[in-house]
UniProtKB/TrEMBL annotation:
Cofactor stoichiometry and binding remark: Binds 1 Ca(2+) ion per subunit.
EC number in record: 2.3.2.13
Protein name listed in UniProt: Coagulation factor XIII A chain
Domain called Transglutaminase-like: residue spans: 313-406
GO function terms (MF aspect): metal ion binding; protein-glutamine gamma-glutamyltransferase activity
Gene Ontology CC: cytoplasm; extracellular region
Xref: InterPro entries: Ig-like_fold, Ig_E-set, Papain-like_cys_pep_sf, Transglutaminase, Transglutaminase-like, Transglutaminase-like_sf, Transglutaminase_animal, Transglutaminase_AS
Amino acid sequence: MSETTSTNEEKKLPFSGRRAIPPNNSNDEENEVPEMEAFGLIPRGFNPRDYLRVEDIYMFKEPHEINKQEHHTDKYYNPKLIVRRGQPFQIQIYFNRPYKPETDQFWLEYLMGRYPQQNKGTYIPILVGNVLKPGQWGAKIIHRENNSIRLSVMSSATCIIGKFRLYVAVLTPFGILRTRRNSATDTYILFNPWCQLDAVYLDDEKEREEYVLNDVGVVFHGNVEDVKSRSWSYGQFEENILDACLFLMDKAELELSGRGNPIKICRVASAVINSRDDNGVIAGSWNNTYDYGVAPSAWTGSVDILLEYYSSKQPVRYGQCWVFAGVFNTFLRCLGIPARLITNYSSAHDNNANLRLDFFLDDEGKVDTKLTKDSVWNYHCWNEAWMTRPDLPVGFGGWQVVDGTPQETSDGMYRCGPASVQAIKHGHVCFPFDAPFVYAEVNGDIFYIKMEKNGTQVIERIDTTHIGQLIVTKEVGGDGMVDITEQYKFREGSDEERLALETAVMYGVKKQSIQDTTYQPQTDVEMDFQAQKAVLGNDFKVTITFRNKSRNSYTATTYLLGSIVFYTGVTKSEFKKHSFSAKLEPSSSRSFDIVIKSREYMDDLLEQASFHFFVTARINETGKILAVQKATVLEIPALRIKTKGELVAGKEMSVIVEFTNPLKQTLENVTLRLEGPGVLRTIQKQFGKIPMNSTLTWEVKFTPMRPGLRKLIASLSCDALRHVYGELNVQIQKP
């Protein structure tokens, strides 16, 4: 090597004194691999053509061929070979002459990254043997014919996930001859939930079809009394999505050698899904202004977001919890980690993880909005990923909570998880990662505290059942909802629940004792609050009911405060204040109706049409205070979708999307989006105006390529109205 090239080398790689080679954390970079690696001086008469030479390698990589069929990767819209680890796949090698095992020696080499190393799992030489050992790298010949041999290749059940480069090396007396770099033989290796030796093994075929292979899901939103659902296109098999997901791990600078471990992958992904502190995929926005971006409610799936990020390398605007969770689910399923999207209704976001949310009342019993800092989210979405946890004691594997929504920092970055659901249920919050935070989200208590004039705090009421009332996910094999609350917590008030709480407190979840404040609950009068279900733009009524269980007559001074809130429970504006005095006869119930007029709320209404009502009542005779709070959501009208013409693969068909404006105002700058995973890439269209009561119709013509049951998903978005969705199942016939 001449002087000049060696100095260039030194310039190119500023090694630190700490490591011999730079960090190897890009799946995309490559190293030069010599086609002829000489053992020493090569004699003059040496001609590589005299030796066994590889003419071609056939990968069986078409969707209908054996590899993609047996490895459940036939749905990926990707021309290269995609296999799952720990399971054999086949390749065929064509030589220039018949292979002679007695004298010829060849082997396969799989390489990844810029600095392949055998001990890091990024350089894998595979000799041809007679047997394949389960879950270990190996190859054996299963068929020989003329100049070709067919190999069965087994990958390790713990190997790195990503894209490997394949070379075939042949031994000659003077050196090693290798095949030329050929990207057509690149091989993607993914997690394998079908393989018992894989850390993500899932033993139920129906669950694997749902949690790995289903590319459409359901997001549950609304609130606990009024659960709403919408479809979300995960699109994990769409073109370039696999490369985009591998790029996320490069972006997060995860060492290649760590990419066989689902715990590490989930942890770095939960940070890179949000843009806080690492310029990750999605920028969150919760303030109802979405300049220079797409409103979170307008997205219909993950594909557009991931592809935009993959090409621009800049955060995509904007997301809220279900968008982070939807994209995270795509990432996990795409790599082969079983995953599902979870919704927790009445989710506590308490800023100091003390299992307690404080709502302060002034001496009249009204809520003091300046002092009250904690908020209850109407709902919050996160993900669960399925894996073993060899880093924890036995019994804490299975579903793990991972959350890509930026809420609190964990080890200095906005990320959350993986936290074992089983550990959360039993209060074992000492185990990594972030279990105390998730425990507080599903288990907090609400304290209503009256501030006396002299500064003392009097606890008026403790509500132990409001937080984490309902935790749900989509059912396996259908669009229905399944209640999984008891996977996160024991029944309220049971002995097991108390024990789990004591365990959590022992492991450092802060639970303030009640001893430091005075608390005498009000027992002889009960108060309840109900809101009528109502459609956006209409009047509706709310009802306050008192039950006087005592033998005394009371008068209750009652305050109702109605606020328009973000779905995170944070108030935007107070639109209704109402107070009245209620006479309560002994041993009787009495109800009071209050009408909420549409003109009172329409001007300030936010996109999820969420209201929050606080009702407090002071019993004048005893000075005791009753308090209750409730979130309610208005019905938002849906988009109607229908099809026209024959639904046959390869034939043009039409989809018609219709929407009638229900508001007493004209809608302006309306954006419609329509997508159908596997049938139709997202298209969007702008409409200038929709006058009140008029109907918009949009017809889209396209040609579906594949037969099967598919779902069309549409959304409408404008400043005055968001969270408008429609969907339709379509059965595309074979031609």
